[in-house]
Amino acid sequence: MFAALCGHIGNNPDTHPITQCARALAELHLAHRTDPTGPPDFALRRLQLIAQIDLWTLQHAPFAERCADSLGHAVDDMTQAHLDAVTALFDERREELVHRAWHVAGEHANAWSDLVDEVVYGQPRPPDPDPSGEPTPTTHVQVFIPAAAQQFCRQFGSTGNPTAR
Known about the structure:
- The chain is mainly α and 165 residues long.
- The two termini are 17 Å apart.
- The chain is globular and about 45 Å long.
- Residues 134-165 have low confidence and may be disordered.
- The longest helix is centred in the middle third of the chain and has 27 residues, at 95-121.
- Helices cover 61% and strands 0% of the residues.
- Helix 4 runs antiparallel to helix 5 and helix 4 (71-91) crosses helix 6 (146-156).
- The protein contains six helices and no strands.
């Protein structure tokens, strides 16, 4: 998923449909952060990609009908958290905000993994650690430097190696 969010995979016809949508969501969010007035169909295109993921999941994942949550929204949330974390890494001077952004991105990655286990294998997700039953709020660090985020993704990609291209 990380490689798709960085734009390294997801644009080939033989790539998994969810990976294709994840990459498209990352590109869409990045374009919107670059110019908040565009792309003009941002909201519609975003919802279409989320729906594509959910539809594919319903058609192919054996336990998807039992799951109350949307994989499409999970990918969208993970995409936004990932972009926030990459951007914070390049721009934020306060270490605790960079740490928080990556922590949130990690929480989304864990939630994604649990959600996939639920829809594919029927494994129930762990209970919410908040005893009130209220969803734990997600905090996105709102620092937008898309060019730096793109450069990071191109440079480090899925391998974590700055020399691999």
